[in-house]
Design goal:
Elements (H helix, E strand, L loop, with lengths): L5 H12 L7 H12 L2 H9 L1 H20 L4 H19 L29 H25 L6 H27 L8 H8 L3 H21 L8 H19 L6 H9 L7
């Protein structure tokens, strides 16, 4: 992704925050030319500023939204080139759907599970919620098809929404498809993991691993009767519990190291 000039983005924001009657049209037109490279529109604004004032405002706000997302024009085009082909196979299966309660199989999804009725309510909800996400995808995809005559920057808001909906859709279906209560894992922990956004789970696992590493390094310097050692062992146990509850593993090498340091963690 290109690194955008934050100062230039601020100039656009400052111009748009200026009351309409106090705006310098030449400055605004120059800002728009720099981001859009549309010289014909630039010339039209300068020739008839009153007529094109609202157009200038609209166009600059459009590019400001894109820049505040740290997206360049090339980034916007790449996003659309990624999202549309990814969503298309899902949407094209709409014709095969025979019930409003069905989500299309294929694209890695197995459909409604045979044990759906026996799953925890929160896991069933993953599937039910995705019916709404699926319909949103179909709607947005068709809206974008009707906007094919527009430039990527003019379709950006819809493409961004479609990208978000698709990621939510795929993540929920993956969690639904793969849900299981693993050995040593409680049902509540399994449900919490399945319903937790992947990025949140990854951050919690990463934080727990850092905690584990930190307190493992402290152990050699702490005597058996030192209160800090008890605290360190508790932190280690809690970190391992968190890692396992989120579906990740602690390596045998780490467990062996802890054992040599006098901390035994059961598998």
């Amino acid at each position: 992704m290109n690194k955008l000039d934050a100062k230039f983005t601020q100039k656009i924001q400052d111009w748009l925050n200026t009351p309409a009657e106090n705006r310098d049209i030449m400055t605004g037109a120059s800002l728009l030319l720099a981001v859009s490279h549309n010289r014909a529109l630039y010339n039209s604004i300068l020739a008839k500023p009153a007529k094109f004032a609202s157009k200038l405002d609209y166009e600059l706000r459009k590019y400001l939204r894109i820049r505040l997302d740290n997206m360049s024009r090339a980034d916007v085009a790449r996003l659309e080139a990624k999202v549309i082909p990814s969503v298309k196979p899902i949407v094209e299966q709409a014709a095969t759907i025979t019930s409003d309660d069905e989500i299309p199989t294929g694209t890695g999804h197995r459909g409604r599970r045979a044990d759906h009725a026996d799953l925890p309510a929160a896991v069933q909800q993953l599937y039910d919620d995705n019916l709404r996400y699926y319909r949103q995808m179909v709607l947005l995809f068709n809206e974008l098809k009707a906007m094919n005559h527009l430039k990527p920057c003019d379709r950006y808001e819809k493409v961004k929404m479609l990208d978000t909906v698709e990621r939510e859709y795929r993540e929920r279906l993956a969690a639904y498809d793969s849900f299981e209560v693993k050995p040593g894992q409680s049902v509540d922990d399994a449900v919490a993991l399945a319903t937790m956004p992947t990025d949140v789970a990854d951050k919690r696992i990463s934080a727990a691993r850092k905690t584990l590493s930190k307190y493992k390094k402290m152990l050699p310097s702490l005597s058996a009767d030192d209160p800090k050692r008890t605290e360190a062992e508790e932190k280690i146990a809690d970190a391992i519990k968190t890692i396992r509850s989120l579906g990740a593993n602690v390596s045998f090498a780490m467990l062996e190291d802890l054992s040599r340091l006098g901390v035994v963690i059961t598998l």
